[in-house]
Design brief:
Distance between the termini: 37 Å
Keywords: Catecholamine metabolism, Magnesium, Metal-binding, Methyltransferase, Neurotransmitter degradation, S-adenosyl-L-methionine, Transferase
EC number: 2.1.1.6
GO cellular component, one term: axon
GO molecular function: catechol O-methyltransferase activity; magnesium ion binding
Number of helices: 11
Strand order of the largest sheet: 3-2-1-4-5-7-6
Helix content: 40-55%
InterPro entries: Catechol_O-MeTrfase_euk (IPR017128), SAM-dependent_MTases_sf (IPR029063), SAM_O-MeTrfase (IPR002935)
CATH architecture: 3-Layer(aba) Sandwich
Length: 233
């Protein structure tokens, strides 16, 4: 798995970027703009999956783990959801297409280039009325959610950013009183690349009830899993 990631993310990507004079993320967006149906979030998700499974690997949650994400969102039925790590906007589109009327998703992205791509992806999918993209570090944005973005509590949180941020950001969400009894956290890539500190924290905490969903790394046959942690108050 590590060797495959190094090949896809470092060697192959850098060579292709140099030859084509554009980023992989821009190529994904271009493929969607040319092949997906505008205003159809399902078409956008399917088109990204097609590109990333057939042409260039990318760190979206992907089609297999996407079904786990879908099921968790549908069960949580959130009014207010938070995503940490927008990347190209794949999971923001995937989550928002399942939100009930009046519900909203706040998605946080640190990388300005990724944020610019995601903004276009979200608008092309036609879900911009449900999704607000917040640009900056999660540790700065989380404490602003209540006052600046009028969030009382979060019903659902998807953690898919830097793995070493999972635990401190989960602690910060609690310290900022953003979780209520029944709030659902879903964390991606807990096996590969891995988030052992997070698993150790939520599984040992009496404040969380955890469920593990074994799966595979997006677009690969590498073992991975998602962890659901329900806040007990």
């Amino acid at each position: 798995g590590t060797a495959a990631l190094i090949w896809n993310e470092i060697i192959r990507e850098k060579v292709t970027n140099f030859i084509m004079n554009e980023s992989k993320e821009q190529r994904i967006l271009n493929f969607v703009l040319q092949n997906a149906v505008r205003g159809d979030p399902c078409s956008v998700v399917d088109t990204i999956d097609k590109y990333c499974s057939q042409k260039e690997w990318a760190m979206n949650v992907g089609n297999e783990k996407g079904l786990i994400l879908d099921k968790t969102v549908e069960e949580a039925n959130p009014s207010v959801a938070l995503e940490l790590g927008t990347y190209c906007g794949y999971s923001a589109v995937r989550i928002s297409r399942l939100l009930k009327a009046g519900a909203r998703l706040l998605t946080v992205e640190f990388n300005p280039e990724f944020a610019a791509i995601a903004k276009q992806m979200i608008e092309f999918a036609g879900v911009q009325d449900k999704v607000k993209l917040l640009e900056g570090p999660s540790e700065e944005i989380i404490p602003q959610l209540k006052k600046k973005y009028e969030v009382d509590t979060l019903d659902f949180v998807f953690l898919d950013h830097w793995k070493d941020k999972y635990t401190p950001d989960t602690i910060l969400l609690q310290e900022c009183n953003l979780l209520r009894k029944g709030s659902v956290l879903l964390a991606d890539n807990v096996i590969f690349p891995g988030a052992p500190d997070f698993l150790n924290y939520v599984r040992k905490s009496p404040r969380f009830q955890c469920t593990n969903y074994p799966s595979h790394l997006e677009y690969m046959q590498v073992e991975d899993a998602m962890e659901k942690a329900v806040f007990l108050g």
